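LAB NOTEBOOK - FOLDING QUEUE
OPERATOR: T.R.
BATCH SIZE: 2
PURPOSE: Compare the predicted structure-token outputs for two unrelated chains run back to back under identical settings.
PRIORITY: normal
REVIEWER: second-year student, initials M.K.

ITEM 1
FIELD SEQUENCE / FIELD STRUCTURE:
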Amino acid sequence: MALMLNAVREISRADSSMKAGKWLKKEFEGVELSGKTLGIIGFGRIGAAVAKRSAAFDMSVLGYDPMVPADEIVKRGGNPVSMDDLLKQSDFITMHLPLSDETKGLINAGAFAKMKKGVYLICAARGGVIDETALLEALNSGKVAGAALDVFVTEPPGMTDLVTHPKLVCTPHLGAQTVEAQQRASKDIADEVLAALNGLSLRWKVA
């Protein structure tokens, strides 16, 4: 939600301009979230949490997740739709899914072509689910009005044309960088080690 609000209200650019001694009020006209349609790709625990919070902004929520039954998406606050319908109908699109063979490059040039002109795209999932070259082209053409990324194909990504684009808000993979999240992660690690030492089943087993 923070990335979405930042992108749509130009907060980072406005802050930078103020620190440079400028007063560019008319240049930073944004749009409101109220009454807009939010498309959530990946309607698991995090996607559902975003849906819950978006309700406070009076947004309509579309959800796509082939791993979550339609009735469960409804219970979590979304209207289940196909991927194509989500791309075509959403004013904002946010992604909350893992990187896999199926999701790599999921948002590519073809996906951007189906989106509304002026859409906003947010991704704090995994680098690689968005084709970064296609995103840059969509930003340059105005198809995407603004984007916010917390993850990249290569991290750190360096000073690329995408990172330095004025319509992109970017952060260095900060999704879990809170005091509370780090405390939970530390406890989870300790619990897993104890479970392994005691021959118990592991909650976060990888393979």
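ITEM 2
FIELD SEQUENCE / FIELD STRUCTURE:
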Amino acid sequence: MARRAGGGPGLRLLLWLWGLWGLWGLCALGPGPAAACSPRCRHGGLCLADGSCLCSKGYEGERCQHATCYPKCKNGGECLRPGKCRCPPGYGGRYCHKVSCEGGCQNGGECVSVNGVVKCLCASGWTGSRCQEAICPQGCRNNGACVAPGICSCPAGWVGRACHLAVCKLPCQHGGKCIAPNVCRCRLPYSGPQCTKKRKE
């Protein structure tokens, strides 16, 4: 009589026991121990089996606690989050690479850094921390104000490049000189507001 393929009952029993042993082995082993990171990984970092962190893009450090900026923040800037720098006073721009003067520089002034000190470099004729003050080399007299390089704004009764010339609405006569608004200094023998009165000998 011919044998059926597949072996006898002894072989089938052996295969069944082998499968049972393999199944028991898998159950006995179970899943590996869960990875534990303490303190935990921050900013979406992945905890690895050895307790270290695999940081997500834009962060670094033992626990992914530090943001990274590329290029790095310059001039002492601090990276707050990926690509975002907090700049110290006097600097600005995405990576703190631009010099920044508080309030800006006026009248054509340029913000520069000289030996680590940020300041405005003023155009000719201007001065002040923000180049806000005009320079009048001739000076502005009689309470005049320098409003532009070399230009004075004079109060009422005064004119001239330096506000040094008084104005008399009624002119001084007989060689008299206007020395203050509407005040004449008369030549002898004349007197009066406009030097019109002649003194009698």
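REVIEWER COMMENT (ITEM 2): Helices lie at 9-29.
FOLLOW-UP: none requested
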